[in-house]
Design goal:
Layout (H helix, E strand, L loop, with lengths): L7 H7 L5 E5 L6 H8 L5 E3 L3 H9 L1 H6 L5 E4 L7 H12 L5 E5 L2 H11 L4 E5 L5 H4 L9 H7 L14 H20 L5 H12 L4 E2 L2 H8 L3 H13 L3 E4 L15 E4 L2 H7 L14 H19 L7 E4 L5 E8 L2 E8 L10 H10 L7 E4 L5 E3 L2 E5 L8
Parallel strand pairs: 1-4, 1-5, 2-3, 3-4, 11-12, 12-14
Antiparallel strand pairs: 6-8, 7-8, 9-10, 10-11, 13-14
Helix pairs in contact: 5-6, 8-13, 10-11, 11-12
Length: 389
């Protein structure tokens, strides 16, 4: 059984309003599967194939002429110059949903869209499976620890594949380093880059200290910044900026770093199994990463930018997530504990008092099983699907 993707609804809407639809996201997040299922009548062409790629580069017009009714062009970042020729084709035909393009790196795809297809393309960013998308699967009754340890990559939830996460992620990391990073960076010392990725994993859920990160890896700060940019462009991690609204307090101005899949994060942190997460020293940071990623997935599946922030003053008072909810600002506190504690409401209350009428009802997401309302706040179990809705 192939798990249904929430973003299929958005793709259907885009196909009625844009001649080209672009699906970007990390490798193995399900882009190709979603494109083929959403557009079953379009021929599927992968530009990973050397012969196909050579033809597309040698004669782009003839290549596109082979598909008079459109096509799904997979991994289009491999032939970014093709996007310029797509512009002329779709402008001449004026047919909605004619081409679907996918890409695993934002660099080639987004540059081409900006330069050649502006105003002609609907963009979907597809991350691995979200918690609601996994509910119909055999792992629907999985524990929080298993959900975090396994992550959301579709291959690890396919019924016909019996894959242990450590084995799959070992191959995924090796493939990513070999195929993606070396296409973008001239990494002379691959072991040094691997150490950098591990050091980033150890900092998921923390404020980014670029000087410390570079020093721990033995590289310069400009190199660390460049490598971070590549990891962001490849959907390995993201940076959450601080919310800068002036509440009369000096605010932290450093972003926070988060991995975009906790399965990959746990693999890099050498977490041996799901059970180990019950007492792991970084359980809180891993759970916070999981919740933040779930909110990002929810927003991406609706076609929205992430537009997430955190808020922290110089006294250490922090709200883990802040984002717009209509005309109001939503505050979300994230706690990995399984038993609710009243002091979890202190930071959201402080935020609400400072934000005034602009603050929505605060939310606390925790590791317990029950959802309820208490003292003006929504307390949500990790199993709930309403974060960000």
């Amino acid at each position: 059984m192939t798990l249904a993707r929430t973003a299929a609804v958005l793709l259907s809407q885009m196909a009625r309003g844009f001649p080209v639809i672009a699906i970007t996201g990390p490798r193995q997040s399900g882009k190709s599967t979603l494109a083929r299922e959403a557009f079953p009548h379009h021929p599927y062409i992968t530009l990973e194939d050397p012969d196909t790629r050579a033809l597309a580069r040698a004669d782009p017009r003839r290549f596109l002429a082979r598909f008079p009714s459109g096509a799904v062009l997979d991994e289009v970042q491999r032939v970014p110059e093709l996007l310029s020729y797509l512009q002329g084709r779709v402008d001449a035909n004026q047919r909605m949903g004619e081409f679907v393009i996918t890409g695993s790196q934002q660099f080639g795809v987004m540059d081409g869209i900006t330069q050649s297809l502006a105003g002609r393309v609907g963009l979907l960013q597809l991350l691995p499976l979200s918690n609601p998308e996994l509910q119909p699967s055999a792992s629907a009754g999985a524990s929080l620890e298993d959900r975090m340890w396994r992550g959301g990559y579709p291959a690890l939830h396919a019924q016909l594949r019996d894959l242990a996460p450590p084995v799959w992620f070992a191959g995924y990391v090796a493939t990513y380093l070999e195929r993606d990073v070396r296409q973008v960076l001239n990494v002379a010392n691959l072991a040094l880059f691997q150490r950098f990725v591990l050091m980033c994993a150890a900092r998921s859920g923390q404020l980014l200290n670029l000087n410390s990160l570079a020093a721990d890896c033995g590289i310069s700060q400009p190199t660390a910044r460049q490598w971070l940019t590549v990891l962001q462009a490849s959907y390995v991690l993201t940076l959450l900026p601080p919310y800068h609204r002036n509440f009369g307090k000096r605010l932290v101005k450093t972003p926070k770093l988060y991995f975009l899949d906790t399965g990959l994060l746990c693999h890099l942190l050498r977490v041996p199994d799901a059970l180990a997460l019950q007492t792991h020293a970084l359980r809180g940071a891993i759970f916070e990463t999981w919740v933040v990623t779930e909110v990002i997935k929810h927003r991406f599946n609706l076609g929205l930018a992430a537009d997430l922030y955190f808020w922290r003053d110089n006294h250490g008072t922090e709200v883990d997530l802040v984002f717009e909810d209509g005309a109001r600002m939503q505050a979300v506190e994230i706690k990995s504990g399984t038993t609710f504690a009243m002091d979890w409401l202190s930071a959201p209350r402080r935020w609400s008092a400072m934000a005034g009428e602009g603050a929505a009802q605060p939310i606390v997401v925790y590791g317990g099983a029950e959802s309820f309302e208490l003292d003006g706040a929504r307390v949500m179990s990790w199993r709930a699907t309403g974060v960000g809705e």
